[in-house]
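Supplementary Methods, section 5.1.

A reviewer requested that the exact input to the structure prediction be made available. We therefore reproduce it here, unchanged from the version used in the analyses.
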Amino acid sequence: MLPILIAFCLVHSLVQSEAFILPGDDSLQVEEEDAKLSTVELVTKYGYHIETHHVQTDDGFVLELHRITGSGSTKFDKRLPPVLVMHGVFASSADWVLLGPGNALAYLLSDAGYDVWLANARGNRYSRNHTNYTPNMNKFWDFSWYEIGIYDLPKIVDYTLNVTDKEKLHYIGHSQGTTVFLVMCSERPEYNEKIVLAQELAPVAYLEHMNSPLLKVLVKHLDAISTIAHLFSWKEFKPIPAVVLEVAKYLCPESKVNNLCVNVLFQLTGANPDQVEPKMIPILLGHIPAGSSTKQLVHFGQEVRSAMFRQYDYGKLKNVFVYNQPEPPAYNLSRVIAPVILHYGPNDYLTHEKDVLRLAAELPNLVEVHRVGMDLFNHMDFLIAKDVKELLYGKVIANLEKFNDKIIVGFN
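The structure derived from this sequence is encoded token-by-token as follows.
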């Protein structure tokens, strides 16, 4: 039973010559206590300046944003566009700092002079407030990634641009963070004009070829899971309780490289043993899952079964009531006209190459499809691989630099 529990908890949080040369220590600067620290505590601990901001969506959710403005006496370059970074499902702003300074993307962006904004979607541990509902109410959890795309992300973009007094920003998303960007730009196409460049890490739109053994079992029984969740009001995926984390220390010791937790992670996202630092697993479990709705998982399961990228499927009868048609409407990707770069891993069990290329073919302003140069690179490697800085982040920052030239010309 424990492997299945861990599976649910970990699910979906889950260098080229042109690369930007990144400063910093190649070793992982992380400690055991990092599993218990909040994003603000982690960033402060490692010597960076961080601010907490709150923004209210049009449907009443209060979202918490974390802004990193530099380290020590170093501040961000005001000429540069801000960078907004969005986490995946079951995750939070902590994703981008877990690898520690010198390696985690948020720190590297800050070191490169960027004003870094880390988003938190509704329902995670940092965004659990609403003007009318509490997390104890079913109504609070009645959302999927559609609502995050049409309510949360647009409001976050507007708030970030307002505070920074900029017209455009860079966007970086991982997994569901890419999904909600595509939803926003297709459903609210005016937001395309506010994006300098969107870089999508492990992009999730089409999931037809998803090949995670554990998730295939869940998708096979999706109807039963959905029914049980409804009957028992199981609306939320909560963070792992502290007692379970303590047990996991014994079942998944750092001294054993190929322990139970690592194996479950591999079954979910793809195996890449040489890139996993054992001490990162308890830190990861301390932050993922960060809280999200059951409806989000069901929606992704529907995408696997339908082989479509479309809105939530309520069943034919209710679909007619909600959408005026028996099938959910598909997202119109031709409306996503912002410049987009897709980064994918060859061994990603969740984001298969065929599905990425299908998405790429439908994006009208595709800049590049980048296949990470390691055959075993998988879904979670985008966040916790030991060599992710060299394999990916250098290129991500180099891409920002290229597009900045189009923005800051003539800056006073």
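The chain has a mean pLDDT of 88. These observations are discussed further in the main text.
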